[in-house]
Amino acid sequence: MRLRRVGATSHDGAAVDRQITHPDDSLADMPNLAVTTWSLEQTSPDDLLPAEAPQGDVRVVRAEVPSPEFSRFLYASVGGDILWTDRLGWPYARWQEHLERDGVETWVAYDRGTPAGYVELSPQDDGVVEIEYFGLIPAFRGRRIGGYLLAYGAARAWDLAERWPGRAPTKRVWLHTCSKDGEHAMANYQRRGFRLFDTKVEEEAVVATPGPWPGAYPA
Questions:
Q1: In this predicted model, what pLDDT tens digit does every residue of 177-211 receive, in sequence order?
Q2: Partners of 15 in the beta sheet?
Q3: What is the 3-state secondary structure (H, E, C) of the chain?
Q4: What CA dihedral angle connects 15, 19, 25 and 29, to 10 degrees?
Q5: Long-range own/partner contacts, residues 180-184 (CB < 8 A, 24 or more apart)
Q6: Taking the alpha carbons of 162, 166, 172, 173 in that order, is the dihedral positive or negative?
Q7: Does residue 31 have a pLDDT over 90?
Q8: Rounded Cα distance, 168 and 11, in Å
Q9: Dihedral sign, CA of 113, 159, 196, 83?
Q10: What pLDDT is recorded for position 117?
């Protein structure tokens, strides 16, 4: 239920950044992995299909104050077991610069006050908004929070210009997902009305990740 960026180009031709820190020398001789990346889109707000709200006190709140510490916590906590490495090498200033870009938004799901996952929206030119990152901290997966959070985040992508005067109204919302995601990821996106528009297969080096913590949650 998350997406990740790989060494490719986005639908608008922009180069995708990848940075890796603290490489594990023990992985140097391991073969590359064949990773399939799927790109999906919505081209009208009418494409968005709602999701049933999860049980309990689950709320989605925008993190309006740019906070590299908080955003890096979310990034590492959600992606620690699914090879999110692109931003681990970002210095503090780069996080700050990214989060302060006009239109970049972080929407966080809270379960009884505890962060459970997040959606990061990144606007592009000509009314295009990318759902750049989406996912749940592992302990909160499998509880119907993911579908609800994705639907909520996609809705905020469609009305993003209402919160950012001067930005063009959203015409298209898109995202990446890949074969390292959970087995239900693609179905979740399609249930929310996203349609596949591109598929790529690339070789990717095996890299060390910041997690998961042994014993923190069931495998």
A1: 988 776 778 889 999 999 999 999 988 777 766 66
A2: 9
A3: CCCCCCCCECCCCCECCCCCCCCCHHHCCCCCEEEEEEEEEECCHHHCCCCCCCCCCEEEEECCCCCHHHHHHHHHHHHCCCCCCCCCCCCHHHHHHHHCCCCCEEEEEEECCEEEEEEEEEECCCCEEEEEEEEECHHHCCCCHHHHHHHHHHHHHHCHHHCCCCCCCCCEEEEEEECCCCCCHHHHHHHCCCEEEEEEEEEECCCCCCCCCCCCCCC
A4: -10
A5: 180/4, 180/35, 180/82, 180/83, 181/1, 181/2, 181/3, 181/4, 181/82, 182/1, 182/2, 182/82, 182/141, 184/1
A6: negative
A7: no
A8: 18
A9: negative
A10: 97
C-alpha 45/C-alpha 158 separation (Å) is 6
Here the tokens at position 192 are 């929310």
Q: What is the rounded distance in angstroms from the CA atom of residue 10 to the CA atom of residue 123?
A: 13
Structure tokens, 7? 């060494």
Is residue 91 pLDDT above 70, yes or no? yes
Query: For residue 96, which phi and psi values (nearest 5 degrees)?
Result: -60, -45
Taking the CA atoms of 117, 205, 36 and 195 in sequence, report the sign of the dihedral they define. Answer: positive
Predicted structure pTM score:
0.82
The CA distance from 19 to 110, in Å, is 29
Q: Residue 192 contacts by C-beta under 8 Å, 6 or more apart in sequence? A: 48, 49, 51, 147, 150, 151, 154
The pair of three-digit structure tokens given for residue 197, joined into one six-digit string: 């528009």
- In sequence order, the 6+-apart residues with CB closer than 8 A to the CB of 162 are none
